[in-house]
Fold:
Amino acid sequence: MGSGKAGFEARVEQRVRANLALLEHEFTGYDRLAARHMFSEFCHLETIAVMAAERGDAIPGQLEDEHVHHETFRRLADQHGGLVAPCEEVARLIDYLTSLEGEASLAALNVTAESWLETVFDHVAGWGACDALMRAIEEDEERHVHDALDLARPPAAEIEPIVRDLERMLEAIAVAPAFMLPLIRFAGEQRVCAMGEALCAAHERACAHLGIASRTHRVRLLCRSQRIWSRRAPVPMEMTDWDRTKQRIYDRNADMLLWFEIPTAVNGYRLQAQVVAALARILQREPRLRYVTRRGELFRAQEPIIAMRALYDDRAVMNVFLPGCHRLTWRGVLRQMNRRVKRARAVEYHAMPPMPDDLDKLLPPSRVAAAVNFNGVHGGIGGTGPLSDVEGIPILVTIGEVRAGRVTLTILMDHRTHDGQDIGLLKRELERELT
Ligand SMILES: [Fe+2]
Ligand SMILES: [Fe+2]
Structure:
C-alpha cells in the first residue's frame, strides 16, 4: 500500500472493513433503533477525537485510528437505519471543544475527552451486544490515553475553567435520553451506572494528571440514586391472549374513565394526602393494579410508588414520586409530600425531553403505577392525561372541587394494562378507604 493521501485512505478503508466484520450480527427490532442512535452518537463523538489528532499530531498513528473509528461508527449507523444528528447535549460538547484554542485545548481533548471515550467503549465491549468490534476500537483508545500522558501539561489556571465546563457537559449527557436510552437498552440500568462510576474515576485520574481538582460528585450521586432506583424495576408478566389483543386494538391513549362522589370533611393538601395514602394501600394489596406497559409488554411494579402532580411554578406541572406511602398515615404522607415537593421546586425544572424517532420506545417500564392530580381549586372535576407512553403511568386519580361536604374523584385507566373489572375494583376500594 502506498504512502500519501491515497495510501492513508486505503489503509483506513481496510481497517474499517475489518472492524465491521467483527459485528457478530445485525441488530433487529428495538435493538436496531438503539444501535442506530448509539452508533450515531459515537460517530459524532469521534469527530472530537479526529480534531484532537489533527491538532496534536504527537500520538503516533492517532489520526488514522480516529478516522477509522469515525467511519466505522458512521457505517454502523447507516446499516441500522441511517446516521441521526447528535443529540443537543453531545452537539454542545462538540461545539465547545471545537471552539477551544491553544495548548489547554489539546490537554482537554487528549487527556479528558479521550479518557471518557475509552471508558465508554471499554464498558460497551462487555455488554454482549458488539463486544469484539468495540474491543478492537477500545484497544486503540487505550493506547491514545496512555500516550497522551506524555504530552506537555498546560498551566493549571488555564485548563481548570475548561475542565469545569466539560464536567457540566458530562452531567448533561448523563441525563440525555437520546444518549442514555440506547445504552440502557443494551446494558440494563445497573451496568450503565457502573459505566457512569467508571467515567467519574477516569475523569478524576485525568484531573489528577493535570494537577487540578475534579468535580464529579453530581454524576456520582446520580449513578448511586439510579442504581437504587433500578432495583425497583418492574417485573415482566406473562401475557394472556387477551392481554396481547388489547395491546393491538387499543391506542396508547385509550383510557377508561369513571367518576364518583364521596363525602369529605377536609380539602386541599390534606385531601390529596388522604387519597395518596388510600391509593398506596390499595395498590399494595392489589398487585393487579400495579401493572404497567412498555413496548407492547406487561410488567408489574414491585411496590406502590405514587406520583403526585404538583405545580413547579405558576403553570408547569411536574410529577413528584412518593414511595412507601402504604406504610404511612395520611399525616405522614402529607409531611412526605411537603418535603418532596419543596425539594423538587428547589432544583431546575426538567422539561420533558423530545423523543424523536420513537426513542420513547426504549424507555424502561415505569416504576410508578398511579398518579394523583388535584384539580379542585380551579373547579375542575376530571383530570387529563397525559397518560402518555413517555410518562408511562397507567392510572390517574383526579380530585375535583369540594362542594357541600362532597368531592368528585375521577379515575382514568389505560385500557392496555387494565380492564373494566380493575377500574370498578379501584373505585370500590377507594370508597371503602375514604369513607
Ligand atoms: Fe477514537
Ligand atoms: Fe482516541
User: Anything to note?
Assistant: Strands lie at 235-236, 255-263, 291-294, 297-300, 305-311, 317-322, 368-374, 395-403, 406-414. The chain has 13 helices and nine strands.
